[in-house]
Amino acid sequence: MKIFVYLHKSSKLQNVKMLLNYNHTLFKKLWLPAALILTILIFSTNVVSSQKSRNGPPPISERIFYGGSFGLQFGTLTDIEVAPVIGFWVLPRLAVAAGPNYRFYKDPFGRTDIFGARAYTQFVVIQDLNNIIPLGLNFGLFLHAENELLSLESGFWKDPPFESPRFYINTGLVGAGMSQPMGRRSSMNVMVLWAVNEPIYKIYNTPEFRISFIF
Fold it and tell me: Which CATH architecture does the domain made up of 60-214 adopt?
């Protein structure tokens, strides 16, 4: 950008003072954004350089991850789910994880508590879609296989007589999803799952949509 300054003989000193004041004001307004931009550029360069210079597999502490899912549904059917997990990257593209699961379930006929545990395996098919299709979409695609064991209340799900106050169901779910990075180790996962041995109690939707986070 070029700045043209015209000075008349009768007002040279005044115009010089005005120009100096303007430049001083402009400097005060621009120095902070410029410093922030420079800091971000330096930080980004250092991160990229450190990632490129790393050789060999990452340490065990960086292969462990935490996360889980949290579901809310209100209305005629209320379904609140909390399912934290802890996992481990066995290979750069293969992860296993497990954790507890709790659901509060309510419909027009009553309310009940569902609890249990789940374990799953994920295999990353595409780590970064932008490397294949350069559209600026930096998410990955993965396959998901899960086994879930739940404890249900007999008085809510069955008709009497009851053999015990609670009973268990074991369900397998398979599907696929996409992973959107949110940081160096964190991401948001969106999955579509199908129950391969859906019980008669219709606890799962068909298909089951799930959003989870890992970090």
Answer: Beta Barrel (2.40)
